[in-house]
Predict the structure.
Amino acid sequence: MMKRFANPRRFLELVKWVQPIAVVIAVTALALGLYTGLVTSPDDYQQGSSVRIMYIHVPAAWMALFIYTSMAAAAFVGLVWKHIVAELYAKAAAPLGAAFTFICLVTGSLWGKPMWGAWWVWDARLTSALILFFLYLGYMALVDAFDDEQKGINAGAFLLLVGVVNIPIIKFSVDWWNTLHQPASLTRFAKPAIDAAMLLPLLSMAVGFTALFTVLVLVRLKTEIARRKLKIRQQGGGA
Amino acid sequence: MNGDYFFYIAAAYGLCFVVLGAMTLLTFVAWKKVRKEPGE
């Protein structure tokens, strides 16, 4: 399976049918998430209507963690097996990961001000999420810092693999330290500590963000593959 | 939804869709640009 999609042509064939499906899922899930999140879901008994910020803040945080983890996995595959599509995936996904992390940080701040009375606190969860944002920016800067694109991608892959240590720190920071940030309401093994009327917009937005990310990362990957093909042609190396 | 926290909710949703909209636009502009390159 992995070897099969190391060939960009085969990968592009897969993209042709995955992309329209992802567009439909993204539009439907985001519309449902917005409607249920802003219109039908109830206010929280303590936080009032500010709880609606959760429907974008939490899915954006999930995306920030998921994208970085997938980039680190792709970087590992790219370094070990010289998988072209995996190498380009990390480069294509990085700006999207940075965008979701930025959304997570700013919406968290907008939620924190009315609930905690502060825009920002140097809490373990917030600080580790800020480090994740800097890791994304650092990766993008490092990849573009080399004249030889391949050298940049390899250097960036090492940064991604070193930085992956931050992911469990973000995830478990609320359990390991006494933090102002609340612990997870959804865990894999326990019954959700959240009402179904709030769970629906939360999961809809999460599905919508994932599908939107899929669409965008596939287009960015197609762009990177096309750029690389053009570069090879310009250097006279053939296609 | 009552009017409490309207500013915070509007700012959060507005920012989210501005950022994601900008990323979508940039992504498709870059794709169109590379498609127009001779040889592609």
Summary: The longest helix of chain B spans residues 6-36. Chain B has one domain: 1-40. The mean pLDDT of chain B is 88. The helical segments of chain B are 6-36.
